[in-house]
Design goal:
By secondary structure, the chain is of the alpha/beta class. It is built from ten helices and ten strands. The strands form two sheets. The protein has an eight-stranded parallel sheet, sandwiched between helices. Strand 2 and strand 3 form a beta hairpin. Bound molecules: N-[3-({4-[(3-aminopropyl)amino]butyl}amino)propyl]acetamide and zinc ion. N-[3-({4-[(3-aminopropyl)amino]butyl}amino)propyl]acetamide (SP5) binds next to loops.
């Protein structure tokens, strides 16, 4: 299985994020995550780690707003030229609650306009890392479009919380959505998000489209981040009505392998009925029982079973890395998840 990976993520290493109550805490979404996954993949006999191709900005503009991309591209330089006291990371303290149509001129004003929380810190290497991450997803999509049965985009930063014009939840560009949108030119696409958190950005991006079925299985947003999307009654709008589905699960130890797999089966039935040409998975490993952010209890064996059942759909599949913060278990869980999907070329 081809694994698309770029070293560019290393320069995206924010010195902190801000937790509930204002606590500055070491950045959980850190470069070590990738080293753990790479080490585990190198021990398999099926992973072929390769650099992504550069697809340029066009497939990114097809999903994201140009003003937002300009902000990501220039904000670090502007931050350094600003009068802020502590310039270790660009992070605003105000947010655009129910956006005013006027985008502010001020850098911090724009930062709050384009961010949804205090975890999408921008540092010098953020934009380059985000572009490389999206190129990993596009390269994996291209490999699958060219006949690979599956390909893995080892993306960092992750993407599923990023919307058309906002960053949040460690995400800047929505890698899985960029890949799904690129694939949608070739036929219907299903995008299944198994990260512990609702893929709010993905939901927003495809909400009014019927050619990309989006499904997210996640902790009930009434009790868990990102709080403002991911409810069961959100099913798409306009032409997209009926083409989005959320499976909110109780964020507690009661949500174990059995409960998770029954939600997965329901999601897989919807995908079968939709008969897509391609499948994209937003693969977050924070569903794992010992994840520091996740509160549900899926075991490593459960994660292996999820991969097996997705593989049984026999669809050309792009797997995109999202969250997962138990670094010690991350390599093992990613390999467990991918092992069934790492088969040979698909027919046709
Ligand atoms: C890609 C991804 O998984 N992003 C997740 C971002 C979640 N940020 C939520 C931070 C909530 C802080 N609460 C911390 C409690 C730790 N005990
Ligand atoms: Zn997550």
């Amino acid at each position: 299985m081809k694994v698309y990976y770029s070293e560019a993520h290393r320069k995206h290493e924010p010195p902190f994020e801000v937790f509930d109550g204002g606590l500055r805490t070491p950045y959980l979404e850190n470069p070590d995550r990738m080293d753990r996954i790479l080490n585990a993949l190198r021990e398999t006999d099926w992973a072929e780690i390769v650099a992504p191709q550069d697809f340029g900005l066009e497939p990114i503009y097809a999903v994201h707003d140009k003003g937002y991309i300009d902000f990501l591209a220039s904000s670090w330089t502007e931050w350094l030229a600003s009068e802020a006291e502590d310039k270790s990371a660009l992070l605003p303290a105000t947010f655009a609650l129910r956006r005013h149509p006027q985008k502010p001129a001020s850098l911090l004003g724009r930062a709050g306009y384009y961010m949804m929380d205090l975890s999408a810190c921008i540092v010098e290497g953020t934009y380059a890392a985000a572009l490389a991450s999206a190129n990993c997803a596009l390269s994996a999509a291209q490999a699958v479009a060219n006949g690979e049965r599956s390909a893995f985009a080892l993306c960092r930063p992750p993407g599923h919380h990023a919307g058309k014009d906002y960053a949040g939840g460690y995400c800047f560009l929505n890698n899985a959505s960029v890949a799904a949108n690129w694939l949608s030119a070739k036929g219907k696409v299903a995008l299944l998000d198994i990260d512990y958190h609702c893929g709010n950005g993905t939901q927003d991006i495809f909400y009014d489209r019927s050619d990309v079925l989006t499904i997210s299985i996640h902790a009930d947003p009434s009790f868990e981040y990102p709080y403002y999307a991911g409810y069961a009654d959100e099913t798409g709008s306009g032409a997209g009505l009926g083409f989005h589905k959320n499976f909110p699960l109780e964020p507690s130890a009661g949500t174990n392998d059995t409960r998770y797999l029954s939600a997965l089966e329901a999601a897989l039935s919807l995908i079968r009925e939709f008969t897509p040409e391609h499948l994209v998975i937003s693969a977050g490993m924070d569903i794992y029982a010992d994840d520091p952010l996740g509160k549900i209890k899926v075991s490593s064996e459960g994660i292996r079973e999820i991969g097996k059942r997705i593989s049984a759909l026999q669809l050309p599949t792009v797997i995109v890395m999202e969250g997962g913060y138990n670094n010690e278990a991350l390599g093992r869980n990613v390999v467990a998840y991918l092992s069934a999907l790492a088969g040979r070329h698909h027919a046709g």
